[in-house]
Amino acid sequence: MKLSLKWLADYADAAVPPPELAHRLTMAGLEIEGQIRAGEGLEGVVVALITESRPHPNADKLSVTRVDAGAYGVLQVVCGAKNYKVGDKVPLATVGTTLPGGVKIKKATLRGVESFGMLCSSRELGLDDEHSGLMILDPALPVGLPIVQALGLDDTVFEVNVTPNRSDALSHLGIAREVAAIFGVPLRYPAADLKEGGGAASDRAKVRIDALDRAPRYAARIIENVRVGPSPQWMQDRLKACGIRAINNLVDVTNYVLLEYGHPLHAFDLDELAGPEIVVRLAKKGEKLTTLDGKERALDPDDLVIADRDRPQAIAGVMGGADSEVTEKTTRVLLESAWFQPSSVRRSARRHGLHTEASHRFERGADIEAVPKALDRAAALIAELSGGQVLRGAIDVYPKPQPRRRVTLPYARVGGLLGVDVPAEETKRILGALGFEAVAEDAARATFEVPGWRVDVDREEDLIEEVARIRGYDRIPSVMPRAPARLEMEPSSTGVEERIRTALAGAGFMEVVSYSFVSPKELSWLTLRDLPLLGKPIEAIALKNPLSAEQSVMRTTMYAGLLQALSHNVRHQAQSVRLYEWGRTYEQNEDGGDEHRPVAREVLHVAGVLSGLRAGRHWTSPDARIDFYDAKGAVEVVLGALGIEDAKFAPVEMAPYHPRASARVYLANGVTLGTLGELHPAAAKALDLPSGTFLFDLEVARLEKAAVLRPKAVALTRFPAVLRDLAVVVDAARSAAEVREVILQAGGKLVEDARVFDVYTGQPIPEGKKNLAFALSYRAEDRTLTDAEVNEAHKRIVEQVNERLGAALRGENA
């Protein structure tokens, strides 16, 4: 935003040099990105009166003039322009002046005639592109007056970087409030010298709001007998300094008050409104509007429009329509001042590719209390500059007034948070200067009413921030942080996260971070409706204002982002991919939305995807591809890092896995930790992914609850192990985990471990059967086992496997 210091001084005059003002504002959170001196380079240019003009004796296109330049005397100047007459006042660049374009003025002889200076156009002064002739000045200006003063260019303009939360600072009055608080100077509000007359405004037009949720307040005034013409030079100069082109007195007033109050306004030609009536409503399907930029726009049913009785006349908060535009024929004006929902304006502005001064402010949150103030100020200026009459009364439709927010601030909390003592009186003074009124107070605390223009303040920390920035962050001393008396124990969640990340990194996984917003189509591919889900289906939460259709719902599974990352890697010819993500999924909260309860239940997960070659292509190993057991191994690595020893795997059929290779991970008490499996071919095809893609998903809260993070010391045994192999033939549907569990139970304390080292089907194994080969390790903690002890335990295991599982002994090696 451009800020004119000359204009600013009307409301709060700090009386300090611009560099100091820029520094103090920047330190208060309003960064000054640049400074421009409006009249820079025009030293030596003065107002001159043309007293004589005659043709050049040696050049048909030139004239020889004599001008009165005040203190510079009467000078002879050769001129090529033809748009002046004797008695006009024009800019004169005196000898020695260097103009903004770099032209240095010297005494010269032009075709035999001496010239002592140059009469200038506005382009030669660097003011605009007009160069058809000399710049004709106001005849009331004194001769010899520096042109900087004559044109109101004795000004410095700041370029202020206003953060999105500070909509109150998008105006000269808003920044003047900051200056008044920082420097302790008075704040002067602009006077609205409004004189009403004629009939009642409500007799000339009607206002109705059909979309109160989008426009809770709409006000209007009627001004009749206006004469459209140029606005006065002082107003044009101020608008130009802020980067706005002057149009006419009516439109310029609305822009002027916009920059003054920060509240957008719009002027309609009342005679072009059907009714005349204003209806604030949503657009109807098929409606069109030609906006002020001359483009016809197809309106969306989500667009909030300002309509008359018959058709839309403006896109609310964004841009007006050409049909009711103020022209030189306008004699009656309906002046609008309203408050529109920020998200509604934002959507319409983005939808139609429009970003205007009005939408910029409404999107960030305007002051609903400023509606009548800005309206009255603009109406008074229009009446003054156009000779119009403001009709009696404003039409102010505000059926549900919004109360001001109140925030209670304990005074001790200010020093506690900032680390420096701030007296209660200083806190009250600063907040009072910013418009926060104390409505209840005792020695320890005060309750402050938040002014309407501060849409960003709603808690005590916000008030403390106001005190800190106005007081000065540089006044907070730099001190060493105070160490706690004792170190707090690291929360278990931190240890669990660290162990999981370390374990997965050690297993060759790379972490990815993806958006929580995903495509509904991708989620539908991952649910695979012909397969069951573990639990009831999860309905995705739709976003009210999505970035795009591809990011319109919150993810219900971590796989959406992981599979996108896998697809990206596959397209770039990655041969072996192992990725994991630590993040949250989002489910509908049935009790959400009431009493500030969140609308979503967020569940923290760690999930992974594996695809491609097991170890990459290498001459020392064959091109073995990743399979289900690699995914199972990754899960086991995580479980091992957390000390979870009683986890089991059981087959499960559920989306989005292939039924042949999917499992549920659960504890002995039945709690499910997560799932893993091969991505179903239908989903892989829909997502354009290779076959043989494997996934795992674990719920972090359940892992944390089951984790054993305190290390257990186990003494190294002094006695050797005895190794035996056991091969049994079981039903093909029987899992190795079931057989292993029977082996461990039958062997008791003597069986240290039992690992599957071979699975075989085919001849001579009968059809429907498979051979499982286990490597058994026997060991006692207090002695070396004898062959008799091992043989007895081994025999007991064989009997139990046969009896409980119906397994047949295929072979046995001692």
The total of beta strands comes to 39
Runs in which pLDDT lies below 50 for 5 or more consecutive residues are none
The outline comes out as elongated
Radius of gyration: 40 Å
Overall helicity:
25-40%
Main pleated-sheet profile? 7 strands, mixed
Strand content: 25-35%
Mean pLDDT: 91
Pairing-aware structural class of the strands and helices? alpha+beta
Please list the strands of the largest sheet in the order they lie side by side. Answer: 27-30-31-35-34-33-32
Count of helical stretches? 21
What is the straight-line distance between the termini? Answer: 87 Å
Your description of this structure?
This protein has 21 helices and 39 strands. With 814 residues, the protein is of the alpha+beta class. The N and C termini lie far apart (87 Å). The relative contact order is 0.06.
Question: How are the SSEs placed, and which strands pair?
Answer:
Layout: E1 2-4, H1 5-8, H2 18-27, E2 31-37, E3 45-56, E4 59-68, E5 74-79, E6 89-93, E7 108-110, E8 113-115, E9 118-119, H3 147-150, E10 156-161, H4 172-183, E11 196-200, H5 201-204, E12 206-209, E13 217-224, H6 233-241, H7 249-261, E14 265-269, E15 277-282, E16 288-290, E17 296-298, E18 304-307, E19 312-315, E20 319-320, E21 332-339, H8 342-351, H9 357-364, H10 370-386, E22 389-392, E23 395-397, E24 406-410, H11 411-418, H12 424-433, E25 437-441, E26 445-449, H13 460-471, H14 492-506, E27 510-511, E28 517-518, H15 520-527, E29 553-554, H16 559-571, E30 576-588, E31 600-612, H17 628-641, E32 648-651, E33 657-666, E34 672-679, H18 681-686, E35 694-699, H19 700-706, E36 722-731, H20 736-747, E37 751-760, E38 769-778, H21 787-805, E39 808-813
Helix pairs in contact: 6-7, 7-10, 8-9, 11-13, 14-17, 14-19, 20-21
